[in-house]
């Protein structure tokens, strides 16, 4: 008989209760007991929700105060010495690793944080060094298991598996992954023994690292870890859970290892079905088929899923599951008041996905035809009317639409003559501090307590102050300051047809931070000019050039919930055409320098290197080129990227064919410069010399040194001087001092040439 499973549920809560409670605790507004009570209430609510919906296999230990990787590390005593030395209580040592600690017990920064595979979630990077002493000491997993039992719910504890943990870790003191095989085996054996004593039925190892490119060494490491662990499992059944792709590099090896169950992703794992059909599936093992998309918010199309499940009918024990943890989708559509039921009917957030699992089981076991018919009706209906004109426009795009003329070097020369900027020109990335007043202006306007006129009056006033200030301190290329924007994607989405916005569709980005991505509902077009009003005004105030400021198509797409009925390529092209109109409008209104931010371009590179060009860059780079291909030779196109780690795709970045690119560099100790040089990078570059992620004010001398280091690698005439990202999160006081220092540093370098 078919059963249902959720590989992990979300934990932040229906109304982000965990976020607010944790933040209150960290501000010392509530006690640890208060916080623990709220956490327990949430866990029980989430288990009960799954139980009442009819989920057969419910996970526990999927709760986390901050991050599941950090939880696992701490469960096994992996806590760097500098945090132990603080001598704080258990929970506070945990938060010190997650958020850093500054107080009477010491001053330490948080652990490094990195993007979790191809999601927008970030995990805390575990550190392994010579003092690491892996032992099974944490009580969290067993405590939560017992808690679920006390509440009448049978759960399957889940943990991040040792292979993924070792693959994601940072190694110090010359340590390497293989040094930790034996201690991990011992620790997991101890854990499994305890679970056996507690009569635990199933235990789940999350091993998403298996969906990446795997070397023979990787597979050897996996085997070395799991052969002894599996031998020691006793009566506990082990589920190997993979997600975010298929396990093509190790399918045969992995399925031969003898886990009791395998969780495979049939949504993002494009080759999963083929792997199962071609190589077979172990007779005695259970298949947990991830068929409900844990990452996107659209309803499942039952007819398609049933067709897929039909192909798996020879599997003896089949359980249907989510493709990954539900932590990557919002809680429920039920609280959304601004979207019509017709629209909401097409969405399935976490709670609705539980119902989908239950309905699919119903259809398969007792032919719940009603659910099937209702679902069929939803998909048979016309959800949207396609924009035929736009489709035609896209179909008619030719190579010329993606190619800017004349070639870069010719443009570079004519722009140099035209703009006549000083050497090492200075600029900023766009936003200036979003002060309390700036945010209040937006909030009151949104509440309807302010007219559009008054709202704009305030913004124009801010722009004026900002432009005057930039002139005073002597920046070369100015910006208007972005006081009209809350968020670089939402702002554009609100001005484009085809987008819908939710009120509560929050998704955890890291720790207590959540984002609320807009949803691409239909074909995207621009209904009116978006930025010209403010940019034109800013330009009217000064003889210097003011950059127009736009978000690029790839970033807009990557930070939205995308459609599933058309390809990402097509969506990117639609957005690109809309932004192209905006670029041309800015140009027609006298804006001669236009920056098109692609902050998130690097973020969505596929997990497998082999897919980078064929599945992503092949449409992402052209989408950017489409945006600016039609501007005049003299119009200078800038772009900006937040992730500095693009050494491995440098050619593709150059191929965006922008005139200038700025990027984060101050924290990555400028390692990218050598790669730029080696690749003979032609685009002019502004490696950020001021780290805006920290409240620290950089001194003149340290920035002078940074510029000198840049000049040691790259030609003088290619370099721009700027901070490494927008200034919106900083205070006016910090920015004022830092920018004055930045300009002084540039001058000091010039004086020394
Ligand atoms: N132009 C944006 C800003 O200055 C860029 C932000 C970003 O890269 N995330 O805020
Ligand atoms: Zn940035």
UniProtKB/TrEMBL annotation:
Its EC number is 2.1.1.14. Residues 4-315 form the Cobalamin-independent methionine synthase MetE N-terminal domain. Zn(2+) 1 binds at residues 640, 642, 655, 664, 725. L-methionine binds at residues 429-431, 482, 597. Keywords: Amino-acid biosynthesis, Metal-binding, Methionine biosynthesis, Methyltransferase, Repeat, Transferase, Zinc. Residues 424-745 form the Cobalamin-independent methionine synthase MetE C-terminal/archaeal domain. Zn(2+) binds at residues 640, 642, 664, 725. GO terms for biological process: methionine biosynthetic process; methylation. Pfam families: Meth_synt_1 (PF08267), Meth_synt_2 (PF01717). InterPro entries: Cbl-indep_Met_Synth_N, Cobalamin-indep_Met_synthase, Met_Synth_C/arc, UROD/MetE-like_sf. The active site is at residue 693. CDD domains: CIMS_C_terminal_like, CIMS_N_terminal_like. Its cofactor is Zn(2+). Pathway: Amino-acid biosynthesis; L-methionine biosynthesis via de novo pathway; L-methionine from L-homocysteine (MetE route): step 1/1. It is an enzyme of class 2 (transferase). It catalyses: 5-methyltetrahydropteroyltri-L-glutamate + L-homocysteine = tetrahydropteroyltri-L-glutamate + L-methionine. L-homocysteine binds at residues 429-431, 482, 597. One of its GO terms (molecular function) is zinc ion binding. 5-methyltetrahydropteroyltri-L-glutamate binds at residues 16-19, 115, 120, 513-514, 559, 603. Belongs to the vitamin-B12 independent methionine synthase family. Catalyzes the transfer of a methyl group from 5-methyltetrahydrofolate to homocysteine resulting in methionine formation. This is 5-methyltetrahydropteroyltriglutamate--homocysteine methyltransferase. It comes from Pseudolactococcus hodotermopsidis.
